[in-house]
Every structure is written in C-alpha cells, then in structure tokens.
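Pinned message: reference record for Putative YigZ family protein
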Amino acid sequence: MLTVTNPPDHPARGLYQEKKSDFIGLACHVDSLDQCQDLVDRVKGDNPKARHVAWAALVGAEQGRAAERMSDDGEPAGTAGRPILNLLQQSGTSFCLITVTRYFGGILLGAGGLVRAYSAAASAALSAAGKAPLILSQTYLFRLTYPQHDRLRRLLEQAGGKVRSEEFTDRVNLWAQVPLAGKEAFEAAVDSAFQGAVAGQELERTVQVGSGI
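Predicted structure (tokens):
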C-alpha cells in the first residue's frame, strides 16, 4: 500500500470544474481518523462560502483491518464521500484524508454528475500528492548475552530490519523491527545462527512510511 507524504498544513491540491461548479480536492497524510474532523473543519473555515465539503479517509495497512470514515456533507447519499473513499481503496492509498470542497455554480448535476465530479477532484488531488510505500513491520523484544548482541544486529541488517531501542545491564534487551515480508526468513536465520538459544518475543505490528516514490 501507499500513503501520501503531504502534511496537513501543505496538502496536495486538484481542481475540477463542471457546469460552473468548482470542486477543489485536497489530499494529505493523517496518522489516525481522530485527526480528520478537525482538518475538515479547518477546510470549511477556509471556505465559508462553499456549499459542501465532502471527504473520506482511510487508515491501516493490513488487508481487512483498515478503518474508514466519510461524509457527503449534505450532498445526496453516496454521491460525494463514497466516490472519494472508493478512490482511496482502489488506488491502495492509506493513512490519507481527501476533502473535496464544492462551490455551487447554479446548475444541478444529478447523482451521476456528482459522482464523476467528486471522483475527478479527489483523483486530481491524489495525483498531485507525493507518495511513499507503507512498510508493515513486526516488533520483537530480544533478551541477549553480549556476544549474541553483535551477531543479532548483523542478522537484523541483512533482513532490512532496524534496532528501535536497547537496554544494557548484565544482559542486553533489544527491541527491533523487521519488515513483515521478511519475517519468516529472519526468524529462520535467527534460529539457525543461535541453534534455538535465541528467540524474539513478538510484540505489536507497526507501520512505517518508506522512501518517497
């Protein structure tokens, strides 16, 4: 999956015009759905003469576990928020909020026209946005002796993982993250290298934003 890299203060922008109505799309990165309403209210505050600000957001990186929210903001049901959400789902874009602000031009568009217009404005904003892959990772806690520590760090590097934090006492507690795509291979490498003497305790799964594309 992908996310957009534009922060809420600098969203990507797209414009679509249909029968004298202006549809202004904005796309930005969000970390949670809890952020969305405040951001939507900010867009409404910036556009006091707009008739509608429809929006949709998708958060989550695991298939079947994404959370979503949307609003038609007074447009006929299913003609505004749903097309925006469909775009996010079909494009594989998550941790993203898209708003579409409509300035009414005096001509009714009908349900089909509204769906096309909101989809087009949202698509224009998404196309203008910077993008980066989402990397789903498994977090582990390892309890190691000092000789085991350096060897495990090398295995992490080979697996594309990273050390999140370390705690040094008479032993080493090491918290690490490994991309989920390489989880099984990493665990097999650890088991082979330490002959079963070291095993990571699986903790939460997390999502990181990769390098921009």
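Pinned by admin. Summary line: The beta strands are 2-4, 12-18, 21-29, 52-59, 67-71, 96-103, 131-144, 162-168, 172-179, 201-209.
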